[in-house]
Structure formats: C-alpha cells, structure tokens
From TrEMBL:
Domain DUF3298: 291-369
Native species: Prosthecobacter fusiformis
InterPro entries in the cross-refs: DUF3298, PdaC/RsiV-like_sf
Keywords: Signal
UniProt KW Signal keyword: yes
The name this protein goes by in its record: Uncharacterized protein DUF4163
Highest taxon in the source lineage: Bacteria
Residues in the signal sequence: 1-28
Pfam (any one): DUF3298
Lineage, uppermost ranks: Bacteria, Pseudomonadati, Verrucomicrobiota, Verrucomicrobiia, Verrucomicrobiales
Length: 393
C-alpha cells in the first residue's frame, strides 16, 4: 500500500514538474509600418552626400530604439551610429568609427535628429559641439536597392524545481525583402533558414529541418525541448540566452549585405557575441563568395593593408606593432568573416579571436582603390569598385 502511494505521488510530482517546465512565453511581432531597416539619402552640410541605413527595434514596453550606419558617397565606408538614451523628442545618435586598444569606443560626431514620416532633419556636430552642420535626409530606394521588413520573435521559458529555477530565452530578428521577384524569394528563403537555425539543436536530424521554412516553423523551433537533468545545479539560478539579429549593412548598386550579430549567455562572468555576414546579388538572388570576386594570391597583401588600417584607426604610424592596438600578436592573418560595403571589402574578428574580450569586435574595411588590382575584371562588383575607387584617389 505504501509503495503504491509513493508511486502515485512520484508520478503526480513528475507530471506537475513537467507542466511547470512547459510554461513559457512566445511572442512574435512583425514590423508592418516599415519602420525597420529603412534607407535614406540626403546631405550633411551643404553638399556632403550620404546614405543612411537606419534600424529600429521595438521593446516589450513599446519603446523604439534606433541604431544603424551611414556612409559618405565619396568614400562608401560605413560609420556606425548608436542611440544615446534621451528623454527629449529628438533622436540622439553617436557615430563610432572604432575603438581604442582598451576597447573604448571612439566617437567622432553626434546626431540630433527628428524622424517625421519619410524625412529626417536635424544637426550633426563634433563631439565637443563646437562645429555643427544641418542634416536633411529622405527615405529612398533607387534602382539597385530594395525595401526590407523585419520580424522579431521571442521565446521565454522557465524550468522550476522546488525553490530553484532555470530560464531559457531566445530572441530572433530576421529580415525579408519586400519584393516579389524570384531573386528576392531565394534571398528570403536563406534569411528564414538562418533564423530557423538559431533555435534548432545542433544534434537534430538535418532531414527534419525544412529547406524553405515558414514563420510557423521558426516559432515551433523556438519552443525549447529542454529537460531538467539529474545533475542540474538548481541552487545557481540563471537565464540561458540566445539573441540573434539580422540587419542591413549595404543596400545599393544591386547588392545586399546582411550582418548577423549573435549574443549568447550560458553562465559565467559574461556572455559572448560575434558577427557573421552574407552578401547577395539582388539580380540573381545568389550569395556572393569572395573566391568568385578576387584573384588568387591576395591574402598576404590584404593582411598587410588590414594591419595598416588598424594602426590608422588609432592614429599610429604604419610601422608600429599591432600589440599597441590591443591585438595578441604583432601579425595579422585574414579570416573568412568578410563583408561587402559600398566603399570596399571589410573583415571582422570576434572577441578573443585576435584580441581580448575587452577589445571588442575588431573590424576594418579595405578601400576599393587599394584592392582594385586584386579583383576579377568583368563583374558588376569590379565596375562598382572602379567607379568608387576613382572618386577616392
């Protein structure tokens, strides 16, 4: 009798724990207003022509935050923008062109602007505020660019056992092109596939992963099938998090570059983050591969150019050691994390890859004028590089 009662109690306890473990929150939000991944063109000052890619993110409280990047048409090199918290009506952004050897961001200017429908107006100023120039921009999608919409998905779940708990949080932000061409359909498929790959377990049978996933497939994958193990440390409660966000880095001349920023936390002193990229041909829908754009034998020369760019970012002489800019070694090797910009080809290194965590992301862009001889002639990339390279000589 006692054994039977204990058996029933254990079964009830297991069912109760399973029910609690399955509780969670799944939230999906699509930006239908177009107020995400928007493209603007206009001027700073009288005639400094620029293109701005502005990203917006809506939080749980309905508040919108902004960041993005812009480039001068003369150079094509992206300058990142990060919003400064402010209670006023204006959107305040700081432009950041890198970081120093200690990982402190280098701010080169400030924006104070107002977004009114399809127009942005305001003021650019130096960090000390002594020099100011007017900003006038209008949303624009000329030939060779495309409108983009954003979907934000979030899953929050909690596992509880007695007084202990563990949390699991997944956030996915993915892009879709607002175009009905066959090329756009293929690019959208790849972007959805990448979004689906965030919550999918690495050990899952790949044959069960759809090649053309829908939003429903992504949502289903975000309901984690995590089970509480016998050796779980329930006394040390923490939230395991994955946050993956797609954003537009280039959207012109018939090319689209998407940046993927992934932040993860699985316990410990801090989380980890990194970036990856895809560049697409908007006419064909195919992803660009560096080997298809560049002649063989470029690696050593580009590494030398990249080292010079990193030293230039810190105002150091070309013969200064790279350890002075926070790298582990005094030599630089190219990795495979490259990206296409209007002004050249860039490379990105995650924390710990060639420098300490505090140094943050390490990036540089090689201007077209410096790498044009290494590009394969006869392509649209080569033609674009030739035009911009001629402007910056």
């Amino acid at each position: 009798m006692l054994e039977g009662a204990l058996s029933i109690l254990m079964k009830c306890t297991a069912l109760f724990l399973a029910a609690i473990c399955s509780l969670g929150l799944l939230h999906a939000q699509e930006d239908t207003s177009g107020d995400a991944g928007r493209r603007f063109e206009g001027t700073i000052g009288e005639n400094l022509k620029i293109t701005l890619l502005l990203e917006s993110t809506l939080d749980e409280d309905g508040e919108t935050s902004y960041d993005g990047a812009y480039h001068y048409h003369k150079t094509g090199i992206p300058i990142s923008l990060t919003q400064v918290p402010d209670a006023g009506e204006l959107i305040r952004l700081r432009e950041n062109e890198g970081s120093d050897a200690e990982g402190r961001e280098t701010f080169t200017g400030q924006w104070a602007v107002k977004l009114d429908g399809t127009d942005i107006t305001g003021t650019w100023s130096t960090p000390d505020g002594k020099k100011k120039l007017p900003i006038s921009l209008r949303e624009s999608y000329p030939a060779g660019s495309v409108r983009v919409v954003t979907t934000q998905l979030e899953s929050v779940q909690t596992l509880r056992k007695n007084g202990g708990k563990r949390g699991f949080e997944i956030k996915v932000r993915y892009l879709q092109l607002a175009s009905r061409t066959a090329a756009a359909a293929e690019i959208n498929r790849v972007l959805r596939q990448d979004a689906l790959n965030v919550p999918v377990n690495e050990d899952e049978d790949p044959t069960h992963i759809p090649e053309n996933p829908t939003e429903k497939d992504i949502l289903a994958a975000m309901v984690m099938k995590e089970e509480a193990g016998e050796d779980e440390d329930w006394e040390a409660a923490f939230v395991e998090s994955v946050d993956d966000s797609q954003s537009v880095m280039m959207n012109e001349s018939g090319f689209l570059t998407v940046e993927y920023v992934t932040w993860t936390y699985t316990g410990g002193a801090h989380g980890n983050y990194g970036s990856s990229y895809r560049s697409f041909d908007l006419e064909s829908g195919q992803e660009l591969l560096l080997e298809d754009l560049v002649k063989t034998g470029y690696e050593k020369r580009w590494a030398t150019l990249g080292a010079a760019e990193l030293l230039l970012q810190q105002g150091l002489k070309p013969d200064a050691p790279l350890t002075e800019v926070g790298l582990f070694e005094d030599t630089l090797e190219l990795n495979e994390t490259w990206f296409l910009t209007p002004g050249g080809i860039g490379f990105s290194y995650d924390p710990y890859e060639i420098g300490p965590y505090g140094r943050g992301m390490i990036q540089f862009v090689l201007p077209w004028k410096d790498i044009l001889p290494d590009l394969k002639p006869g392509s649209r990339i080569y033609d674009m590089a030739s035009r911009l390279g001629a402007k910056t000589k």
